[in-house]
Amino acid sequence: MAARVETDVLIAGLGPVGAMLALLLARSGLTVTVVERDSEVYPLPRAAHIDHEVMRLLHLVGAADPVLKASSPLPAYEFRNGAGALLMGFSPGVEDAPTGFPPSSMFHQPTLEHGLRAAIANDPRIDAHINTALTTFTATDDGVIATITDAQGPREVRAKFLVGCDGGASVVRKLSQIALDDLGFDEPWLVIDTVLKNNVQALSAIGLQHCDPRRPVTSMPMGPGRHRWEFMMLPGETADDVMSDEALNRLVAPYADPASLTIERRAVYRFHAVSAQSWRKSRVLLCGDAAHQMPPFMGQGLCSGIRDAANLAWKIAAVHKGEAAPSLLDTYQSEREPHVRAITDIAVFLGRIVCVQNVDEAAARDAQMTTPCEADRVSMLPPLPGLGTGIMAGHASAGQVAPAPRLCDGRRLDDVIGYVPFLITREKGLLSGFAAQGRIIALSEIDDAAQHWSKLLGDNEAILVRPDRFIFGLGATRDLLSHWDDYLQSRRAA
Q1: Is the same domain home to 328 and 443?
Q2: Which of 20, 194, 328, 389 is most deeply packed, by most CB within 10 A?
């Protein structure tokens, strides 16, 4: 066996979630080894939607710019029945969210992955092993001993933590003997990704759900020059029935001239909702699709995985450095799973609206949903739920994502401080104890022309924001710091 590898964290899987986790851990000062079975980034698009919160996290690790260039903001998302009548619609309502990025964008996943891998290549704390598989591991009291295998044979890796970011068929989850809970949605769909010919940049700016009982169809722009259709499989239909060029042309023809498109990918997927029963076994953890999967009707699958990474990385780092009790890692699932399940519930709800194939049920749905006047069927894009657990300092804004402030000199605060907690205070005062962990920013240092922060502060003295950019709490500065320390040391229930 080749020489043994020693590392702080071993990550299985170098997709977007594994790459984000590696970058955040490295920025927290830890050494990271990542193993990835495939030799190259998967060249075709899979995930299609990214929201402003996740774009901000990508910016935090230096990977947002290429994604922004290969994405298109989504101005509307509509559900229409078989006759074309609007059932409901959503609009962001603003050009940029308080994070500084478009509320909702359609993007090109390979561009995202190449951007993340470029950032990884420039970080000396990360050792990426491509075309390498995690084959076995044994958990110990203080870490894991794993075997990874490449073309040269097996080698041993010793790590303080192992994180499975290895997708829906996760080897880490299976070797850990962690079962999946079925959340009650499982439907087969055909997915077609196309490239538009003749330098056409878009067929439509908006996302559409054609809720036609004859065959429900999703139609989504995929960033400049690309478009995706998803066709629900009919009862008794097989992949062979729909995968030929002739069948694809027939399916696409009602929506676009097949001759104006190049089919980039065709695949049959099962859109389903599942969650791992446990996301942590001691020092072995699951992240992204290894921990949970949801149908695509909210476009939140990849986004949820990136949020997992942002939640988990700073906690692993704090425990590893002795800044937090090991039990802080228990808050990972207790915070993330309810958040993911709330989003999954919404996605399943939307999926049940779309996936009606019974004509009478569709007619009843249409009658109910078209009762309000059409203007009342369109609403602002609702914000995603915040964290409902793990927030120690009670306030209506605690658990929500914090705005991304710019300093008075124009720089983004995220660029200046990185992936650390921070306090926004009316006056800095003497808070050297917290300054060792994070940053303290006076309100006077922020360009608050939009009054995001002054409105948030209200009558409070300070706001404490976690490294993952969720608001921990508002209140008196010293009370917040006391609550924060209690949270890190698990002296208060999450």
Answers
A1: no
A2: 20
